[in-house]
Each structure stands twice: as C-alpha cells, then as structure tokens.
C-alpha cells in the first residue's frame, strides 16, 4: 500500500511540474442530422467528459478528450407510416466522442482549437440502442473548430462540429452537425 501511495504522489508531482494538464468539462449541444429523412432544426443535448493537454510551447499544444455526447433528432413525417409501430419519431443518440485537437495560443487568454473527432454510438437504454442500431451507423467522423476563453482554472468554450460520415442506415445520406458551448475546469 505504501508503494502505491508513493507512486501516486510521484506521478502527481511530475504532472504538477510538467506541461501536461488534465480536467473535466461539461456543456450543451445544439445538434441536428442534416439529411432528407430528418428534421432540419437544431435539438438540445448535453456533453460531459474529461480532457488532457500537453503544451509544446506557450503558443502550441495538443489536447485529447473523451466525451459523452447526447444527440437528439427527429425523423421527418414522410417516414412516419413506415416506422410508426417500430420506432418513435424522436431519437436520442448517445455517442462516446474522442476529439484530438491542436491548440493555438495554448496558455493565452483566448485559445483556438481544431482537429478531428471520432465518435462511437452507445446507449444505456436497450430499446433505444436496438432501434438506433437499425437506423444509424455505429461510428461518426467529424472536424471540430472553436475557441476558448481561459480564466484559470475555468475555461469557457464554444465549438462547431462538422460531421463527414453518413450516419444514417436508412434512406438518404445524413451528416451530423453540432454547436457546443460549456465550461471546463483544469484540475492539474
């Protein structure tokens, strides 16, 4: 037990003096699936997760995140008769998203972030998961761009996420789009 405590203290000491920073974040998503079979309005969702970033210099860094993203959408009325008995019109898709972002002006007041994001379809409700597997593909690839206002240890962020992958497994092609806003707290 003493070895574990010593190793933990050493690890946290190294992190405290290095250019590696970790924290938690949360916020809201305004999202939609841009396609013929889906409602074109943005729907409200949320995101929760953690991040770690490494600064190469005060200006340049790299940030990785693991986020739980909730995406809400509605199937349009022209498919209502086909899916009326099997599926609800409102769909909630839960994704585990992993963005890898380049940070510019990493230690400044305003930081610009951009990079790819890979998401995996997941859900806690078996019925929604089974229905989602019938209608939606299991992965999504996107590009993220945004800005952060750093008031250490709190950061306010806003981003736009452009989906490149076709996420619909029925009918015509659909791409995801998200507007994200929230707060993050740097712990180390």
Automatic annotation (TrEMBL):
- Residue ranges annotated for the Outer membrane protein beta-barrel domain, each copy included: 19-168
- Pfam families reported for this sequence: OMP_b-brl_2
Q: Which InterPro entries match?
A: Beta-barrel_OMP_2, OMP/PagP_B-barrel
Output this protein's name.
Outer membrane protein beta-barrel domain-containing protein
